[in-house]
Amino acid sequence: MTKLSAKNILIGISGGIAAYKSAELVRLFIKSGANVRVCMTPGAREFITPLTLQALSGNPVHTALLDPEAEAGMGHIELARWADLIVIAPATADLMARLRIGMADDLLSTLVLATAAPVHIAPAMNQQMWAHPATQENVNILKQRHHIHGPAAGEQACGDVGYGRMLEPQQIVDAVSATLELTHTPRPKTLAGHRLLITAGPTREPLDPVRYLTNRSSGKMGYAIAEAAASMGAEVVLVSGPTQLDTPEGVRRINIETAAEMLEAVTSEVPGTSIFIAAAAVADYRLKEVATKKMKKQGSALHLELEQNPDILAKTSLGNPDLFTVGFAAETDDVIHYASGKLKRKQLDMIVANQVGNGKGFDKDSNQVDILTAAGGHFTLPEASKTQLAFEILDIINTVYQQGQVRLT
Ligand code: PMT
Fold first, then answer.
1. What are the pLDDT digits (tens) for 300-342?
2. I need a surface site. Which of 256, 265, 292, 346 has the fewest CB within 10 A?
3. 282-321 burial, b if ≥16 CB within 10 A, otherwise e?
4. Under 8 Å CB-to-CB from 282, ≥6 apart: which residues?
């Protein structure tokens, strides 16, 4: 795993001779485990073909703001929401001037306006153009909003020598990676002073010493919430089923396997907790009698007797009426109807409903959710990366939670 693993990176390419280096940049980001999409300005297509970048990124290249095909599928807003990071390399003097004043006259400049993701800019231009006071003024303004990497000094394609060369692709990848921890630091610490208890991942219910029942949860949704909450200043305890994920920075993780173990960990961590978020996919049933030795083949059919697991969310919510409790609902059909039933039955403050099955929800880097509140609120969040969605979910939780706090005092 690298810091870039599973990050959604949108690479923007504008029209300069350094555009040929962007192919290597795409390759390096893919190699570091990121999901990459590419957006090219018309000028960029004079220097390198979309087909090359499509082959390297494994995704169609986005070129036109009003492309009817793109609008029908991943329009500019969806693309802006999909990205965890935007990396513009090379960024020409013209593009930087347009970004400085907030133009939205092509797809790339529109994406920069429409995204909440951090934007990284690697300038490349003739040394005289870079030194020009207009460019320098633009750079100084853009530095306040975005990360600027380079340019380097050296011999240029036009024969000039000086500052204006785009950084080498590996240097750009390293610079972006180095700022990743900083990515979350400018987030307002709106959860400071609060302790969040979050469950994530699947549970494993043993059948015998070598076999178990489980599900497809990867833990990505719950871990993204834990990471986002920590970067918003919260004290975070993550109770996690078995996953392949690294513990997010600043998060205390408790590993469990079964639903019974998850319940025990959650119960002992509830005191002092302000908000409980249950994103784990807990097995509803477990084997009534777990075999102590490996089960032998028993003819053509095997009958297992299952008993219900405790409902961790319902028990925690009903046993702690002052705890702000948020459940998730994973549904294959009639999502809002079933989620609303769980919200009421388990007496939750809020439920995050997502459609699952057919490649949705479980073990994906993106998700689409609806949030229902006990007071009758309904928020629909369009599909976005789980990282991005985590911040949006927490912002809504925090707003509703603070309103409750105000009402109580
Ligand atoms: O982990 P990922 O691959 O990123 O996938 C994310 C996800 C799809 C798992 C996540 O977004 C999600 O929907 N989590 C809840 C999955 C689930 O078990 O939903 P449910 O509708 O069966 O359960 C409703 C709620 O009760 C959930 O908050 C669940 O944690 C909780 N529950 C369920 C059963 C049980 N015995 N105890 C519980 O606490």
1. 999 999 999 999 999 999 999 999 999 999 999 999 999 999 9
2. 292
3. bbeebbeeeeeeeeeeeeeeeeeeeeebbbbbbebbeeee
4. 199, 203, 259, 262, 309, 311, 312, 313
Ligand 1 geometric centre to CA of 328 (Å): 5
pLDDT, tens digit, 9 for 90 and up, residues 39-96: 999 999 999 999 999 999 999 999 988 766 655 555 778 899 999 999 999 999 999 9
Of residues 252, 232, 262, the one with CA closest to residue 387: 232
Ligand 1 neighbourhood includes 363 CB (under 6 angstroms): yes
Is residue 342 within 6 Å of ligand 1 at its C-beta?
yes
Instruction: Reduce the DSSP state of residue 387 to 3 states and report it.
Output: helix
What is the Å distance from ligand 1's center to 354 Cα?
10
Sign of the torsion formed by the C-alpha atoms of 70, 177, 34 and 191: negative
pLDDT band of residue 239 (cuts 50, 70, 90) is very high
* pTM, two decimal places: 0.65
Ligand 1 atom nearest 202 alpha carbon: 1
Element (H, E) at 307: strand 306-308
Q: Which two tokens stand for residue 239?
A: 């109770």
Q: Let me know if 158 is a catalytic residue.
A: yes
Q: Are 119 and 147 in contact (CB under 8 A)?
A: yes
Give Rg (Cα) of the chain.
25
Euclidean distance between CA atoms 226 and 197, whole angstroms: 9
At residue 136, the 3 state secondary structure works out as helix
Q: Quote the tokens at residue 405.
A: 């706090």
From 158, 182, 210, 304, the catalytic residue: 158
Those residues with Cβ within 8 angstroms of residue 290's Cβ, 6 or more apart along the chain or in another chain:
206, 207, 208
Single-letter residue type at 376: G
DSSP-assigned letters across all residues of 190-222: TTTT-EEEEEESB--EESSSS-EE-----SHHH
Distance (angstroms) between ligand 1 centre and the Cα of 326 equals 11
219 CA closest ligand 1 atom index: 1
Dmax over CA atoms of the chain, in Å, equals: 83
Q: Which two tokens stand for residue 74?
A: 């991943």
The pLDDT of residue 289 is 96
Cis before residue 310, ω within 30 degrees of 0? no
